[in-house]
Design goal:
- By secondary structure, this protein is an alpha+beta fold.
- The chain has two helices and three strands.
Length: 64
Amino acid sequence: MAKASEKMLTITQVRSVIGCPKDQRDTVRALGLKRIRHSVVQRDCPVVRGMVFKVKHLVEVDEG
């Protein structure tokens, strides 16, 4: 579980992965997203930031 002092990111899928390269589809799935308008909360760490950067055109991020 995340500590109370850790920053968290709320990641929401806003576009479809249909027609995207397989590595981008896999990245969206690895973030825990399953469908459009599905949101997950992830730790704010360099690994997650890199994944979000790779699919930034498919997701929306709220730092809160």
